[in-house]
Amino acid sequence: MAKDETKELSPSNEVRDADSDDSGETIFLPPDGGWGWVVVFSSFMIHVIADGVMYTFGIFYVEFLKYFRESKGVTAWVASIMVGMVFTVGPIASALTNKYGCRLVTIAGSILASFGLFISVFAPNVIFLYFTIGIFTGAGIGLMYLPAIVCVTCYFEKKRAFATGIAVCGSGFGTFALAPLTEWLVEYYGWKGAMMIISGLLLNCSVFGSLFRPLEGIKSIKKNCTQIHASQSESQKLCEQSKDNIMNNIDTNNEAQLKTKHSLHVDGNTLKPVQSHPDLTVTSSYLKGRFSPQDLLVAKRRNSAFPRVGSPSPEKISGIYNRQSNYHQNKHHHHHGVLYRKDIFYSGSLIKIPEFHSSSAVYTTSITSIPKEIPTKEEWKILKCFHCPKEMRDAFHEMMDFSLLKNLVFLLFGLSNFFTNIGFNVPYVYIKDRAIRLGIAGNENASLLLSVIGIANTASRVILGYLSDQSWVNRLWLYNCSLTLCGISTALSSFSNTYILMAVYAAVFGATAGAYVSLTSVILVDLLGLDKLTNAFGLLLVFEGVASLIGPPITGWLYDGTGSYDPGFYVSGVMIALSGLMMFFIPCVQKFQKFPTQSSGQVQKV
Questions:
Q1: Which residues does 95 contact at the CB level (< 8 Å), separation at least 6?
Q2: What is the pTM of this model?
Q3: Strand ranges (E), 130-222
Q4: CB atoms within 10 A of CB 266
Q5: What is d(CA 326, CA 165) in angstroms, rounded to the nearest whole number?
């Protein structure tokens, strides 16, 4: 038994195991450039069109009020269902993306969203729009939104913050550009003609989606050690480095023991270890030419003398070897879905992640998670009925793991997001009609308020993104203060009784709302860690979808009851401000969670 375990740890045996698989191990290496910049441009354009249509829908809302003559609360459901579907379809979009890739899912979403807007022209009533615009267009935009982010993160690591920053800025730019464009189309072609043109614009997202070329993987080729090591000099060099690294990490008392039992020598062209040290692992990544030898050779110094070679415990084997063992156990599955990457939803700078900062090479090989085997009895019936592929089931189970709700920090963050989204979409839907009802602007100038929100949002994402990467900035406090200010300004917008003051409010709202969108993923990693990012992101989409569904109708109902938008904006502002103030208690909750663990540890010692 001891010999078998020793054999597993040997570098040569590790190479043979990796090469024994006919198909080999596929590694997807982000190029940090190249075609990635085409992907960034495509993602930017999708954000311009999709988010531009969604956030300027308040222009169509005014036209629906005139045409169908329904109450504001009833009509507001059109926009709220659409935005709610964008978020709630997220886990489904993730599962589809994991199986079929970003390109196909984006094209399908573009066609569905365009179809929903086009057939809305024939709507006999508002309820018809609930299905066409609310469900079809909302689901289509949701299918485009997630791949547009995921594809960028697949292509970038070191430049990820810059690349994703460019892509998501399309959201604010789209709001800025499409507001006057939509108003002009409505004025000249009516709302039906304008909607047909906008549906054609949405269909162009399929063109940009077709540019989401899947990242090409590098496959290991089946070969023996003699073929891998091209020359004896290269083997000798690696051997000398191995001995130097070990010799520098042992005590002088163990030097003789190492030379006799733990040395490496070259036999012909093949590198063989006479005995393998439990903490010495030579990975096959070097054989693919990706990393330097220093990243492939892991040698750790123990406080005591080397143990007798025999049966090392798995917990003491290095992380790289554990990852390769997991691969060999799952080598017949060959799952290469993008959502198997732990950092796929992380849009910030990877330098902030300790694993990447310590060794980017080791980080690259560790971010791929092996899918868990889920017992059949635990699988959800709906997934079994539709015979979903394993990649889809893995992604859905990962994102919809409700056990994370037991974490008090995430629960508080989820409630904060829920309250934020109750009021987040209210200004986008109602600010035009509010300005018209107050008599401070006509249709054209009132629509420009949406442009002010868009340009302020774009500028704030750039500024806040830069600040969040600075070591002297507390990102949680930056997020909390932005949300609190956003809520206070929304609640006090009732004092904006002139067009200038309303434009100032629009600018403040757009700037502070940018923090909520751009900092969510980095805050999640700061609070929960990278391993729980995908799960947390999936559950947050549900929180956000439900809140977005009920937020705008509440303001509409309050207007129907009071004849003023002020009460609705009061409620929205209080909800957003409360969501920011709640987050200031996160450090206290973190200490509370650590206290029981520390107390139990002390009891065990006693």
A1: 388, 391, 392, 393, 395, 396, 399
A2: 0.72
A3: 217-219
A4: 17
A5: 34
Three-state secondary-structure class, residue 423: helix
Count of other CB atoms within 10 angstroms of residue 553: 21
Report angle CA 181, 172, 472 to the nearest 5 degrees: 165
Give the burial class of 48: count Cβ atoms within 10 A of its Cβ; 0-12 exposed, 13-18 middle, 19 or more buried. buried
User: Which tokens belong to 399?
Assistant: 């994102």
Exposure string over 30-46, b if 16+ CB within 10 A, otherwise e: beeeeebeebbebbbbb
Average pLDDT (144-156) is: 88
In 253-380, which ranges are continuous DSSP H helix? 255-261, 293-296, 319-329, 354-358, 360-366
Helix (H, G, I), strand (E, B) or coil at 231: coil
| Assigned token pair, 562 | 């009071």
Polymer length in residues for the chain: 606
Cα 351 versus chain centre, distance: 17
What pLDDT, in 10s, does the model give residues 356-381?
555 555 555 555 554 454 444 454 55
Residue 517 CA: distances (Å) to CA of 54, 280, 299, 531: 15, 44, 42, 21
Distance CA(310)–CA(3), nearest Å, equals 7
Helix (H) or strand (E) holding 466: helix 443-468
